[in-house]
Fold:
Amino acid sequence: MKAITVEPHVSGSARLEDFPEPDQHEGSVLVEAIAVGVCGTDVEIVEGKYGWSPPGASRLVLGHESLGRVLDPGPSSALKAGDLVVGIVRRPDPVPCPNCAVGEWDMCRNTQYTERGIKEIHGFMSERWRIEPEYAMRVDKSLGLLGVLLEPTTVVAKAWEQVVAVGQRSFWEPRNVLVTGAGPIGLLAALIGKQRGLEVHVLDRVQTGSKPDLVRQLGATYHSCSVPEVGFEPDIIVECTGVGQVIVDCLKTASAGGVVCLTGVGSGGRTTGLPAADLASAMVLKNNVIVGSVNANKRHWYKAGAALSRADPAWLSQLVTRRERPEDFSKALSRQPDDIKVVVQFSAA
Ligand SMILES: [Zn+2]
Structure:
């Protein structure tokens, strides 16, 4: 079968190649790939900055935002041939740490977890893949290709759970949320904010294209100014850019008692010149919390599926802005100005 593979930590090593059929040890459920979404992590892996192949292998099958159709459910009674499924990405560490031991692999303490398409387990960019039945999430058939949005939605489902967990440390009735960054994560965070009944604001640099329109279609407000210029003090900020200046601005602008959830993974950039002690003082005096959030456990996968099922499919379908064939995977990995979510499509949904 064809697979898109990479030699981790070797820049430019990605290729579409003939690859052995998925091994039985990868799971008893055999799945035909429909589509795999591409995100910044895939770009980093292809650039040689991240990623690990399975023990004993030199190459890693790329891809962690999956959607497939069950070909053979194996002994699983919960799945049927033809079901649409998405594979959970992370597996608990083998020790296991206390969090992995209770199924909270997203909160792994010892970093020995593994991840499909990222860390020591093959991903989903192959014509067929296998998965353990307990890690195969069935998605609503009516979602079709949009099921490929499930994995990024799990990331925001977890982030929202973290925000609520922190907020409930005191009496808390949040009215509004500011989402910084209108990429797939930001837009899906905004969607869940609306579903939670909040007044939603989304900030991004762009002034044209589909992002402002998608935000307005949600019934939310779009801002292309800086965070301090939005004109209100957000009760919740979901930060999805990973940009240093935006993060500092979020910490300064959050309301008293406000919660800032960081989901973006950036690096470097200019230093802001703001002394850490001054930032800390501002946060102390407003009882602010910054919470970092990454990955998702099975509860978040379940919640994300419910959120997608409740969303307007016409709105969701505008998030998938480009589909590329497997042989054109390098086009999928190079970002275009109007891209939101780009997918590599292996077969029809
Ligand atoms: Zn762990």
In short: The first strand starts at residue 2 and ends at 6. The two ends are 19 Å apart (CA to CA).
